[in-house]
Design goal:
By secondary structure, the chain is an alpha+beta fold. Helix content is 18%, strand content 33%. It has a four-stranded mixed sheet with strand order 1-2-3-4, with no helix packed on it. Strand 3 and strand 4 (58-65) form a beta hairpin.
Length: 82
């Protein structure tokens, strides 16, 4: 039971600190762990959601699809729309 409570507390804390970075932001460099952003592949054909790892590096989290498939909520959180 204590493990589940700890996991829920951790997830709740992560959810309240999620920060989105707009499409077109720098693809490399240090980022804020726990933040998310929409990105596209080098050819511009596939749109993805990336998450900033604990090491401060961007990593693909979800492959959304083609043009317009990665969108932001009104709170600035990216999601796949296709």
């Amino acid at each position: 039971m204590h493990l589940i409570t700890g996991i829920i507390t951790t997830l709740a804390a992560m959810a309240t600190t999620t920060v989105a970075t707009p499409l077109g932001a720098a693809a490399s460099g240090v980022c804020t762990p726990g933040s998310y952003r929409c990105t596209q592949d080098r050819l511009g054909h596939t749109y993805n959601i990336e998450v900033c790892t604990a090491e401060g590096q961007w990593k693909i989290n979800s492959v959304c699809g083609g043009l317009g498939c990665c969108k932001y909520t009104v709170n600035g959180v990216p999601y796949c729309a296709c």
